[in-house]
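Morning run. Coffee first, then this:
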Amino acid sequence: MSRRKPRSHAGSDRQTERSFDGSTRSTEPAVDDPTLVYGRHAVRAALHNDRRHVVAIRHTVGAGDAMAVFLSELPEPRRRSLPAPQPVDATELDASLPDGAVHQGLVLKVTPLPDPNLSDLIVAWEGRTDIVLVVLDQVTDPHNVGAVLRSAAAFGASAVVLQDRHGPPVTGVLAKIASGALDVVPLVRVVNLARALRDLQENGFWCTGLAEDGSVDLGRVDLGGRCAIVLGAEGAGLRRLTRETCDALARLPTCPPIGSLNVSAAAAVALYQARLARTGRDDLQLVNG
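And here it is:
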């Protein structure tokens, strides 16, 4: 492994940019800062989330009207609690984010959300029979987790659960892919996934794992009531202990030669199926009927 050569500061022409706190920063590529939320959907959701402490609000001149609309939507107490928006040049926002980040002219500096506790959520759900959860087994790609969160919000899931040691950190990229869902759906981290599944089962949840070799098509599984949809990482799938802990293993009825879907796509299909179980097919208005 080669060592970095020490930089010479004499006569250095290294450029810097102003950061969120007013200090200067290098123009070297930024890391994915977990305290930065960017993109219109993610920013709007964070502003509406009273649990989010917003440290700074920055926007380009072109995105000023959008930011003004977002702020006007907020209740007066929330609006008064926020810092004043700061218009900046787009290059300053670009410099604070990873290469290729699509910020749409809007960036917030925030403090991370507190980690929800599964036991606390189970207590809060007492008396409810319509809870749908997504449980992820060693899904480490932040793009996949963000996409699963977005589907969870779209189809009314109450939480996404993943193993702490084998889950991605919450970063700006994950929040951007989640498109605001990170501030809507609790992302719950647990130490032991099998134990978490057993805790859910003891509280009335039916845990259905998705596997290519599942014994039944997902459409034949009752996803009404309290249910947890368990998905594994692409390629590896569900681990042995996770499979053994699930109440049932179901498969998606894909057509050959495709045997499985990406985990985020599979989650969307399963969540839609669970949504149908709650709304009832008879309640759907057929466009060709």
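The domain at 27-110 is CATH 3.30.1330 (60s Ribosomal Protein L30; Chain: A;). Good start to the day.
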